[in-house]
């Protein structure tokens, strides 16, 4: 019997890369998405890779998610569905707590009722906030600087209690800043413009729309925030490894950073993109985002030690994959 995984947020940027990989590995996949930020098109494209069912529903409605477990025999869940704009969360905090925290609560309850115990949860480096030391390991204190990070930290804590009291087994992944696309340019970040730096720098270099700096001035050598960039395909592979890890009888719940371990400032990333395209961009200054902090990059050695995961795509390959994706889909997905 093929294994069946439920992927919440399967129509989104990172979730769709996981859908593709799990299908390629012979899994049956049920994607659950309300299409508030995701798209129908990637799921249509990915159908050719295997048995994929797309369920339209909202995690904020208990009935929607309960139904999925009633109608499908699910082995494990990869929970990507969330709202994830730091800036938006500073403007609409309640939306973030409802969507990300209450939505996750409804999912965990539906899993508990159905007796599904294994879950891989997409958390974020934003759950750390301003750093006390670098690189950040998983034991670093958590002081989120915005409601988005807080909603993820609270969900991590809720999940810990579902582990202790309802025997859930979980892998919590704290992703750093995500970039890149599928190497064939088939699926990618469909948002236009994206809220993510490397994506927007590539769009700027390709002349799709002008590039604007939207970062606050912070205390770093060039005054722009330092972040750690990790490719969406590498993240998808980590989820596949985590599924295998959770399936082992003697494994226990764990938290892992997923990053490259190197810090790039915003200005360095823009220069790198210009270098890869062999031209300078006309850069503008946009409105500064709220809720940002100076620098963070990961110590991801625990993921290598336990899951044997390490990044395979470097920044040049991520930029190349984005170039291929935007060449095929300059306006993102159609629907
Ligand atoms: N993109 C990043 O740089 C980054 C970094 C760290 C962590 N993450 C986390 O990774 C996950 C995926 O992020 P992404 O960049 O692919 O975002 P995305 O917006 O592309 O995908 C999220 C998907 O979840 C769906 N969704 C949101 N709320 C929902 C709800 N209530 N019910 C059903 N579906 C819902 C959206 O429609 C969308 O398809 C998120 O949990 C995010 O917090 C992302």
Structure description:
It is a single chain. With 335 residues, the protein is an alpha/beta fold. The protein has helices at residues 13-24, 41-46, 62-71, 86-91, 93-114, 147-166, 197-205, 232-247, 266-277, 301-307, 315-328; strands at residues 4-8, 28-33, 52-56, 76-79, 118-124, 169-175, 177-179, 211-213, 226-227, 229-231, 254-258, 264-265, 283-285. The strands form four sheets. It has a seven-stranded parallel beta sheet, with helices on both faces. A two-stranded parallel ribbon has the order 7-10. A two-stranded parallel sheet has the order 8-13. Strand 2 (28-33), helix 2 (41-46) and strand 3 (52-56) form a beta-alpha-beta unit. Helix 1 (13-24) crosses helix 8 (232-247) and helix 3 runs parallel beside helix 5 (93-114). The model has no long low-confidence stretch (mean pLDDT 96). The protein binds nicotinamide-adenine-dinucleotide (NAD). Residues 9, 11-15, 33-38, 58-60, 80-84, 99, 103, 122, 124, 175, 177-178, 196 line the site of nicotinamide-adenine-dinucleotide.
């Amino acid at each position: 019997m093929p294994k069946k995984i439920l992927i919440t947020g399967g129509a989104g940027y990172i979730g769709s890369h996981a859908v593709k990989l799990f299908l390629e590995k012979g899994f049956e996949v049920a994607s659950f998405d309300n299409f508030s930020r995701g798209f129908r098109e990637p799921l249509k494209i990915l159908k050719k890779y295997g048995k994929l069912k797309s369920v339209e529903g909202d995690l904020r409605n208990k009935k929607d998610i309960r139904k999925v477990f009633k109608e499908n025999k699910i082995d494990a869940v990869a929970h990507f569905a969330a709202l994830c704009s730091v800036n938006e969360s500073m403007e609409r905090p309640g939306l973030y707590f409802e969507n990300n925290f209450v939505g996750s609560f409804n999912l965990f309850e539906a899993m508990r009722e159905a007796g599904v115990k294994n879950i891989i949860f997409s958390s974020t480096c934003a759950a750390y906030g301003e750093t006390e030391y670098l690189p950040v390991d998983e034991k670093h204190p958590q002081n989120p600087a915005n409601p988005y990070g807080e909603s993820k930290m609270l969900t991590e804590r809720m999940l810990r209690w579902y582990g202790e009291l309802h025997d859930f087994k979980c892998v919590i992944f704290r992703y750093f800043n995500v970039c890149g696309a599928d190497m064939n340019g088939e699926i990618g970040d469909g948002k236009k413009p994206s809220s993510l730096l490397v994506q927007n720098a590539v769009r700027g270099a390709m002349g799709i729309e002008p590039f604007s700096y939207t970062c606050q001035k912070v205390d770093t050598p060039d005054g722009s925030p330092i972040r750690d960039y990790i490719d969406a395909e590498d993240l998808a592979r980590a989820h596949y490894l985590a599924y295998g890890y959770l399936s082992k009888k003697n494994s226990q719940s764990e938290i892992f950073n997923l990053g490259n371990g190197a810090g790039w400032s915003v200005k360095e990333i823009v220069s790198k993109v210009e270098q890869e395209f062999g031209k300078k961009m006309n850069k503008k200054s946009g409105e500064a985002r709220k809720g940002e902090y100076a620098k963070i990059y990961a110590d991801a050695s625990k993921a290598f030690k336990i899951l044997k995961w390490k990044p395979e795509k470097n920044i040049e390959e991520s930029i190349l994959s984005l170039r291929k994706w935007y060449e095929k889909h300059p306006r993102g997905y159609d629907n």
